[in-house]
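Lecture 7, part 2: worked example. A protein chain together with 6-O-phosphono-alpha-D-fructofuranose.
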Amino acid sequence: MTNQKMTLGEFIFDNQSAFPYSTGELSKLINAIRLAAKITNHEVNKAGLVDILGDAGNTNVQGENQQKLDVYANVKFIQTLIQRGIVCGIASEEEEDFIAVNSHDGKNSNQYVILIDPLDGSSNIDVNASVGTIFSIYRRTSPIGKPVELKDFLQPGNKQVAAGYVMYGTSTILVYSTGRGVNGFTLNPALGTFYLSHPNLQFPENGRIYSVNEGNYVHFAQGVKDYIKYCQREEENRPYSSRYIGSLVSDFHRNLIKGGIYMYPRIGPRQNGKLRLTYECNPIAFLTEQANGVATTGYERILDVKPTALHQREALFCGSKNMVEDLIHFVRRDTL
Ligand code: P6P
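Predicted complex, written out as structure tokens:
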């Protein structure tokens, strides 16, 4: 099947048919993500009931308070990926350095590396707002053996072979792409299986939602301020609605379904923005473009940025084509 619109009727869930565009190892890798997502989902859904809420009492490499579920999700995704012996290396927001994974044949011959944000938006956990896991997959470029950070983990986003997220919300949904469009699979918790619920997801070209933390308004570049004022003006098809959950996966998923733009600009002390390029901006940008949207730093395509560090930050503007192109117009007008 080419990139035709899939219908629910075409997929009775099973390990293979639900990932029609993944072959062999990649299929196994996405299945491993599916398993880790179910395990994490189980804990996220009962977080309010057991003493797993709140601060794990330490901070991660980003200097952010680690919530206990952050730690739990990180461990479960890493364990599952290692046990399946499919990747040669794993990078995580919660780990300072990447983890080299030996293949079952002991030659470290696996071909993929994965970068994950195991539980993004975790500050929302204690207030029962939705959170998510984000993942990005590359084919290694180094020869077999221990992976090499620069060659394998710091590839530009345009080299991704797959990317996606799991959103733990009112329902749990796995949204991913292997380069032939974007599909969403909703978990049936009673059966522990994911069903194709959102075939061929596409950003509406126009949207009516803008998502940004307006508390940072004073720190935004003038072009970003001008675009926000443009969104708020009483004119044809405006003002837009402002919607911001503070959870990238949740804000992105809503805008993907309804149309909209998500913005995390460079701000004052965070001249490179807040979001991490390799395991937040790049996978989200890959999905955006696969869903016919646009993802930019404001000045260049996110997927063309050459990473120089595992946890480097980058500005992110992504979503409906016409809205992001309007943003780019205001940003570039301001810098001319
Ligand atoms: P702020 C969560 O920490 C996160 O990385 C994204 O999920 C979210 O969009 C953003 O940061 C929220 O940041 O500064 O608005 O609280």
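The two ends are 46 Å apart (CA to CA). The chain is about 30% helix and 25% strand. Keep this in mind for problem set question 3.
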